[in-house]
Amino acid sequence: MWGLQPSAIFAGQMTKPLALRPAGPTELVAVRFEPDGARDWLGFSVDRATDRRLDMTDRLAGLTAPAGDPEGQVAAFVAWLETQKAKQGWSLDPVVRAAVEASTDDRPSPDRPPSEQRALQRRFADRVGVSPRMLRSIFRFRRVFDHAAHPGQAADGWLEAGLEAGYFDQPQMARDFRRFLGCTATEWAREQQALAKAIASETYKPAGFHPA
């Protein structure tokens, strides 16, 4: 069942596919938070937004941005966030921040007693929206696309990219494709090629040649 999205939304961490389709021409302006950076702005635990899109229309009621100017809109949004941060004294959890940085850099996690690990999981749920282990899985999956030369490469290219990203073998990477995108690497690449062709057919209209 499909429904119209609000004009302003907050996107939480995604651990499964989310289907979206346009209802017409769309102008999109987005600002990305660090994984642990949105907690104070939201005002509640980030795990409430995991795998969801929350209506932020009322939350952004005080924001004014120039219509039809994406760069100006981003600048206005960032300035508004900086003002909110200064007024409300936003801060980061240093323990969670250190764990997020380790995950970002693909550094091993330190060994922790079970009680400390459970406490970290609770703090991650509040600040990040997913567990430390899930965040590492998300980062590893993203690195596949960083290592891949281009989306249309052969299957052995995808395997090489997966190994460089930290996967042990192709079945392990295939499971994450299914989990996060709901398709195989080959199916995803085919869809990207079809999308690129569709965009090119609509945006690249060479003018007719008229000899002098």
From TrEMBL:
<protein>
    <recommendedName>
        <fullName>HTH araC/xylS-type domain-containing protein</fullName>
    </recommendedName>
</protein>
<dbReference type="Pfam" id="PF12833">
    <property type="entry name" value="HTH_18"/>
</dbReference>
<dbReference type="InterPro" id="IPR018060">
    <property type="entry name" value="HTH_AraC"/>
</dbReference>
<feature type="compositionally biased region" description="Basic and acidic residues">
    <location>
        <begin position="104"/>
        <end position="115"/>
    </location>
</feature>
<feature type="region of interest" description="Disordered">
    <location>
        <begin position="100"/>
        <end position="120"/>
    </location>
</feature>
<feature type="domain" description="HTH araC/xylS-type">
    <location>
        <begin position="117"/>
        <end position="191"/>
    </location>
</feature>
